[in-house]
Amino acid sequence: MRARFLVESPMVERLAPRLSPGQGISVGTSMADQPAQTSERSWSLTERELASRLSWFISIRWFAGLTALLFLAVAWHGFGIRLTGPDQPLVRVLAAVLGLFFYNAVLVILVWAFRTRGLLGRRAIHAFANLQIVCDLACVAFIWHYTGGIENAFCILFIFPMAWASELLSRTNAYFHAVLGATMMNAVAWGEYSGLLPHVHLVRLVDQCIMDFVPPELYLDWAFVLMVCMAVAGGMFVTVFLAGTIAQRLRLRENQLEEAYRRLQTVDTLKTDFMRRASHELRAPLSATHMMLKTVQQNVADRLDAGQREMIVRATDRVDSLTKLVNDLLLFSRLENEVDVPARREPTSFDEVVRQTIELLTAGAETKNLRLEFDIAPARVTAEKEELTEIATNLVSNAIRYTPDGGRVSVRLTSEGGFAVLEVTDTGIGIAPKDLPRVFDEFFRSTEAKNAVRHGTGIGLAIVKKIVQSLRGTIDVRSTPGEGSTFTVRLPLSTEPPPPNRVH
After folding, report:
1. Do residues 204 and 211 make contact, with C-beta atoms less than 8 angstroms apart?
2. What is the per-residue pLDDT across 246-259, written as a single tens digit (0 to 9) for each?
3. Within 10 A of 374 (CB to CB), how many other CB atoms are there?
4. DSSP state, 474?
5. Domain residue spans in the chain?
6. 103/115 Cα distance (integer angstroms)
């Protein structure tokens, strides 16, 4: 339910210590309020979350492989860049990309097996994530070596696995991969410098003439090699620090929200249970009070003066209002929990329910000199009669209540496209545009409604909406302030025959 219940209800304050025996975390707690030392256990990913994110990174890997192929094609055909050195370096690069695709396909199968069949445990899924990062780094190092090594500015690609590691794994593991990535890059760069690895030189084909794309001895310039290695390695560690910090804070915030959600669920359960119990406890004394007041009206009214009789009438009306409120709260609680509701539903004549409702409310319309119009066509829906009565009564009574004297209320029931359509139109006070999105919220009353009728709970339309939704129907409202409103309910028509020997 709404968070304001936590703030406004004193009952919740008394119950709060029982909601969480440990040190709970509220939604409003800032990062500064948390302990300085946060355990990795508090923000580590669960296995299913990790598997879900691994699936996302697998998708990114497909994109990365296709981007590498596109870059090679553009460099080869668009800019005339060629690779010289070991035998067929381009073939080796293409083989590495195809190997990446094959490896990614295997990952897809493994992640699917984990998510659907639970084949991997906690340690296995984390080892699986670490293996992916290692393989990604090895693939980047291989492709970087055979596309020019230190001459290729795309050594920056070593940074991307660091971001993935910070998102997927603990900070300790992320720093391990940063060290591993820096080691691989330095091994390639200094291996080429020392001659332990063959160097692939980048050249450019211009008018059938081979030209150096970069200085031919650049990979042998120890100062340049050192500068690039230090810059990229530093970028890896900075990426791990920044991405890890952001990931840690996001995970902590997710845990805070999950804890707050669990507490709200507990409070909501307590609130619903309290409403149900309180309503049950109030029904008996209210019924007894109503009976006593009626007895006084019938047997003692002739002994009372006009003022006393008026007080009895007013007290009876108030008890009736409270009784209706209690019944509404019980119905609201039942609808929220949806306890055995569908089992009691059967094909019911919606038109007869609407006619009976109009008959009961006609006297109220006549006292205000309202013109009550209706056009009722046969329609059967699968529902409890009480549910349909609640819908019709709330909509028609609200139209009568909020329509000034001498106005008009129109009730129309038709069948359209497999739905029973109930329209209740009035020439009443209307609803302001800013209040329309909230008109079906529980306990909400617009400013116009409060000014027109002092007493009201704001729960009637909320109950109608819950009933309509429970019946898989829809409800909407159109309104113009000062001119009136139209409420439209659509309920699926019943396809079942009526029960035998049943009078509706």
Report:
1. yes
2. 888 887 887 888 88
3. 16
4. E
5. 40-220, 342-492
6. 19
- Rounded to an integer, what distance in angstroms lies between the CA atom of residue 433 and that of residue 427? 16
Beta bridge partners of 410: 373, 425
Please answer whether residues 114 and 125 qualify as being in contact, where contact means their C-beta atoms are separated by less than 8 angstroms: yes
Q: What does the alpha-carbon distance between residue 457 and residue 442 come to, in Å, rounded to a whole number?
A: 9
Task: Give the tens place of pLDDT for each residue, 329-352.
Answer: 666 666 666 544 555 788 889 999
B/e letters for 149-188, b = 16+ CB within 10 Å, e = fewer, are bbbbeebebbbbbbbbbbbbbbbebbbbbbebbbebbbeb
User: What does residue 317 show for φ and ψ, rounded to 5 degrees?
Assistant: -60, -40
Which pLDDT does position 74 carry in this prediction? Answer: 79
Mean predicted confidence (pLDDT) in 356-377: 89
Number of Cβ within 10 Å of residue 17's Cβ equals 9
Helix (H/G/I), strand (E/B), else coil: 426: strand
SS3 206: strand
Q: Do the Cβ atoms of 378 and 414 come closer than 8 Å? A: no
- CATH match of 342-492 with 3.30.565.10: yes
pLDDT confidence bin for 492, thresholds 50/70/90: very high
Amino acid at 237: F
Beta-bridged to residue 382, according to DSSP, are: 347
- Is the pTM of the predicted complex or chain greater than 0.85? no
Residues in CB range of 87: below 8 A, 6 or more apart:
none
Q: How far apart are CA 77 and CA 234, in angstroms?
A: 34
Q: What angle do CA 447, 486, 383 make, to 5 degrees?
A: 110
Strands 408-416 and 371-376: parallel
What is the Cα–Cα distance from 338 to 340, expressed in whole angstroms? 6
